[in-house]
Amino acid sequence: MYEPNNTIPAIDLIPTEPFSLIVPNGSENSLCGTKMKKNNTLKTSYAVLRPGMVHLKNYISVTDQVEIINTCQEFGMGPGGFYQPGFNGGSKLNLHMMCFGRNWDPQTKYVARYRCDGSQAPPIPDKLVALAKASIEDSQRHDNVPSMHPDICIVNFYTNTGRLGLHQDRDESSNSLRKGLPVVSISVGDSAQFLYGHSRDMRKANEVLLKSGDVLIFGGKSRDIYHGVKAIIPNSAPLSLLKQSKLRPGRLNLTLRQY
Ligand SMILES: O=C(O)CCC(=O)C(=O)O
Ligand SMILES: [Fe+2]
User: Fold this and answer.
1) Structural domains of the chain in order of their starting residue, each with its CATH number
2) Please, which pLDDT band fits residue 164 given cuts at 50, 70 and 90?
3) CA-nearest residue, atom 2 of ligand 1
4) Which of 2, 25, 34, 108 has the fewest CB atoms within 10 Å, counting from its CB?
């Protein structure tokens, strides 16, 4: 179905609806978030959730989070930007998604170079690669996590009703999975109740709250962990982030991986 060279495949192109991360000008009064203590220094802490799974809390400054939002907004509104992925049966994922580096889609996985609208993934921004590498290095101070060089970044935006069922990230190359090369997950905006466990059974899963600026790394012995998002906590994003970025209500999540 897809041509091996760079020409766009001869399929009926389905345009995607533009999706903006930013609320329109003039909506400032309706910003609802959480006031943080005034403190210009980042108080980062960490927790090893299980072998190979490290939670770096409050790791990314508000300034850097704003830059991440602006980068995702810039590319998210262009070709290869946000769309709502669907399944064969016609149902849609409860989030908007885009990819940097290489396209991934729940139906076509990493096989298709082009999306159904004919677009390719924009290149992965250097700053995101650097942030992922720095967070892996920091996680390695606390636990056994392999190093990796990210070449894919999947960006999800959840509105406050968004969620994601328990799943494993198993579409990367067999080499990457065999070596347990980590997934680096960055959270920006409203907090998420994040589930992880040994099976798809939500009742048996553990839960951790991922807040704006947190980074979660799962690699090594945890690379195959089932994980998902149970719920987004409305109005939990830092007010300063919302004021500086105009991020719409909801949560932005970036997962960096090596194919
Ligand atoms: O939003 C999250 O925290 C997880 C996202 C995720 O699991 C994925 O994109 O594969
Ligand atoms: Fe995942």
Assistant:
1) 45-257 (2.60.120.590)
2) very high
3) 253
4) 25
